[in-house]
Amino acid sequence: MSRKLPRSFYDRPTLEVARNLLGSFITFRTKQTSLSARIVEVEAYIGQDDPACHAARGLTKRNQVMFDQPGFSYIYFIYGMYHCFNIVTEREGFPAAVLLRAAEPIDGIESMRKRSPKGKVEQILSGPGKFCRSFGLTQDHSGMDLTGNTLYLTSGKGKPGRIVTTTRIGIKTGTELSYRFYLAESEAVSGTK
DNA sequence: TGAATGATGCGCT
DNA sequence: GCGCATCATTCAT
Q: Which domains can be identified in chain A, with CATH numbers?
């Protein structure tokens, strides 16, 4: 049985949270469906000293939730058509989050398919934009409490597998930091064939 | 099979 | 205006 991850899980150093998120499950319940997936790839964005972190230039209306309590969602709109889903970490006042980059579909695959009709099913959540599109998450879902009953995470079962650490993808600054983590055995990791 | 590029809108300088 | 934590398509090898 997997248990819902409590607030204390997120209230820790971001790199630790990021690594521990691999192999855990995310569930999103709506009136129609219940979607769930196993997390296989994440990136950390940590504080005002991390140049790639949205909070690097201080608090704004958009990144507000990163400064608030851990265990909440931070979702932003990018490139005119995609969304990225983040999990806020660390104590209130310290802005940090983990970007969910890829996951393996578990439940509600039919619904994901409707939103992402093309490509292999295993890769339907393979990338931060694809994950949000397939789950139907938008900036309207930013600031949600992840310890609630609508959008929440549960612990993984057993050992997740071998974890690979690399630098982050798709950014221009902070490229020297090894803040990306993924499960070596997964077919759903982004940026691979 | 890999590199280049266009789509498209919002937040911030 | 510019740039962006992306992705699908196009074009070249």
A: 7-183 (3.10.300.10)
